[in-house]
Amino acid sequence: MKTLKVDVAIIGAGTAGLSARRAAMRGGASIVMIEDGPYGTTCARVGCMPSKLLIAAAEAAHTAAHAAPFGVHVDGVRIDGREVMERVRGERDRFVGFVLSDVDAMPEHEKLRGRARFVSDTVLQVDDHTRVEARSVVIASGTRPNIPVPYQPLGDRAIVNDDVFDWEELPESVAVVGAGVIGLELGQALSRLGVRTRILQRSKHVGGLRDPQVYESAVAAFQQELDLCLEAAILGVRRVGNEAEIRYQVPGTPEVTERFDYVLLAAGRLPNLDDMGLENTGIELDEQGRPVYDAATLQIGDTPVFIAGDVNGVLPLLHEAADDGRIAGANAAGYPANVTPGSRRAALSIVFSDPQLAVVGLRFNELPKDAAIGEVDFSNQGRSRIMLKNRGKLRVYAERSSGLFLGAEMAGPAMEHISHLLAWAVQQKLTVDQMLAMPFYHPVVEEGVRTALQNLAKALAK
User: Fold this and answer.
1) Does the pTM exceed 0.85?
2) Under CATH, to which class is 348-461 assigned?
3) What is the pLDDT of residues 131-160, one digit of tens each?
4) Are 237 and 263 in contact (CB under 8 A)?
5) Do domains 149-267 and 348-461 have the same CATH topology?
6) Phi first, then psi: what are they for 35, rounded to 5°?
7) Exposure class string for 395-430: b at 16+ Cβ within 10 A, else e
């Protein structure tokens, strides 16, 4: 048995773990990074990058098939599922390769392969080969897709997003359970690539939207194109040969039984905390079995253990995981003398559907009661109509007493870009008047932002 002594031990080599490593080293700490799975981040392997590759193929197919309103007639659009997936896998592997190159460049003494278990707050056992003694520990072990028990009898007919990106060919049919980010993005992409797709969502929530008017505009747009079933109760599933049979019911309609090649479960993710030996530490767990920690410092109670990234259950986004890693790594290096709250960027989340969805700063349900609201409907917005992307709505929020811009929710064209502009405004603490003093070119979708802000200024004036 080998014994390794370091200042900071990091469990997990994903985005948060790699960020924690860099921060801890900047703090002068010696580190070891422990990983029991494949190197390469969730984003690169099975998340944001391969999903955008699939979406790009779907957008190309959709554009070709719907060019007639422009007077452009494309006859005989043919989608080769094998070629689509070959490009997805090839480019995915290329992105993963960039991460692997960074890991390969690390000194060997900083990397340890195996499953880490806590023996105490500061001692880890890695498989049966290494004992790690550290001054502090960062848990950055990530999450895994959730396969609920009722779906397990489906065997390999029940899949998660990880499985999609290893397909060599597109299937004939897929039922998607869940209309969050993963369900919407993959469900719409598969549908546009010619896969018979039905999206089943047990609640009314779609894509994380909370503003009722933005939500209604988004759902109206999706239902023009997608088989999106909201408030769908799953009554039962069973495997029939190489198909998955699913029974469900939407309120006010008869029960439906359908068969699909696969059921894609986009029903959340589980933290990788199993068999980690947390019972051997002073870590307190909440009712969901997650460590109770300080959101500002990421320290777990008063222990020398910090938690970063998706595993903490807050915001499963790459940039948030990177920030978490930076904060946790710096505080782990500074422990116990220097543990301080970390700086955060303005909240920003995007769903790469069509229309795109985004939330910036405060969500509608987080606003103060007297907040002022402005909006624009993209149905008549100039550039949006030119592109035939005139669907959705943008709503912007401000503090009534000061005119301070608080945030926005949106569904529409180019929201991935517009949301960045608005997030920068939130972070810079701009007022609505200051934002309206900025340049707006013509004709661009951003003119819709100006319209929404002008309406917000009128609401403030009242």
Assistant:
1) yes
2) alpha beta
3) 999 999 999 999 888 889 999 999 999 999
4) yes
5) no
6) -140, 130
7) bbbbbeeebbbbbbbbbbbbbeebbeebbebbeeeb
